[in-house]
């Protein structure tokens, strides 16, 4: 089992080295071979994202601004009727 795991790790590393973004990903702090390979597998074709912001949103890393809810009318007093 250990030999099989080493063989798979070697194959993943060889495949990763062929990818054009491999050197960029591996050079980032905190990203090694396994994390870089996982990112490329999860993202797929990066050109599908128009901007880095689109990729960040896809990954759930972009901040979302929630609009405030409109004021509730349930707790307000009705306006007095106008008398003629």
UniProtKB/TrEMBL annotation:
Pfam families: Transposase_20. One of its GO terms (biological process) is DNA transposition. InterPro entries: Transpos_IS110 (IPR047650), Transposase_20 (IPR003346). Residues 23-66 form the Transposase IS116/IS110/IS902 C-terminal domain. Residues 65-84 are annotated as: Disordered. GO terms for molecular function: DNA binding; transposase activity. This is Transposase IS116/IS110/IS902 C-terminal domain-containing protein.
